[in-house]
Amino acid sequence: MSVFKAYGAAESILKNFIRRYVSASHDVEDICQETVTRALEAERSRRIDDPGAFLFGVARNVVRKRLDKQARSLIDFVGDFAPKDQESEDPSLDESLDRDQQLVLFMEAIATLPPQCQKVFVMKKVYGYKHKEIAAKLDISISTVEKHAAAGFKRCLEALDKLQVAKVGNKAKADIQSAKANANKMNK
């Protein structure tokens, strides 16, 4: 069976698989298209024994690459709003590692949010901007800011739950629980 035939047979399953990682329908379509293109290019240069499994592997890599890119752009965005004159006390190495792991999990959860929702959520929950300030900076209505902040919080908690299921081991579960507790504190 060729990659193209395998895609035709598994298109809806592949799209559902991708929807677990991205929410926008145009992103799902873009990732499917990129997946098929890459798989067809690979098929030209080598024999693929299981085209269906190969498609899912390619799709997973495309999604991972896209999420990594979003996470990097989010880090750049967060850096733009970071206070320049903030002093910090050096925590212990263990505290620093735990905090870094929690931050990575939290950032992975934020990376699953749509771009506008990410901006609002970070400005509100990380930097404490008021709804009116966010609305002015992003040129959106206050009600839109409220909706994005609430949706962002809810989706981050859901993403942390998914990460907890995906990552095995007591340490990963403890890190995720701690990240969720910190997210809950930020929501108050």
Protein described:
- With 188 residues, the protein is mostly helical.
- It has 2 domains: 3-70; 90-187, Arc Repressor Mutant, subunit A, CATH 1.10.10.10.
- The protein is built from 8 helices and no strands.
- Helix 1 (3-19) packs parallel to helix 3 (51-81), helix 4 (93-111) packs across helix 7 and helix 5 (115-126) crosses helix 7.
- The longest helix has 31 residues, at 51-81.
- The radius of gyration is 20 Å and the shape is elongated.
- The model has no long low-confidence stretch (mean pLDDT 78).
What is the fold's blueprint, element by element?
Layout: H1 3-19, H2 25-45, H3 51-81, H4 93-111, H5 115-126, H6 131-138, H7 142-166, H8 170-187
The CATH homologous superfamily of the largest domain: Winged helix-like DNA-binding domain superfamily/Winged helix DNA-binding domain
- Along the chain, the helix and strand elements come as HHHHHHHH
> What is the number of helices?
8
Distance between the termini: 55 Å
Overall 3D form: elongated
**From the 3D coordinates, which CATH architecture of the largest domain would you assign?**
Orthogonal Bundle
Helical residues, percent? over 70%
* Main beta-sheet strand count, sense and barrel state: none
Q: From the structure provided, what is the oligomeric state, counting identical versus distinct chains? A: single chain
Tally of individual domains: 2
Core attributes:
Arc Repressor Mutant, subunit A; mainly alpha; elongated; 2 domains; 80% helix; 188 residues; single chain
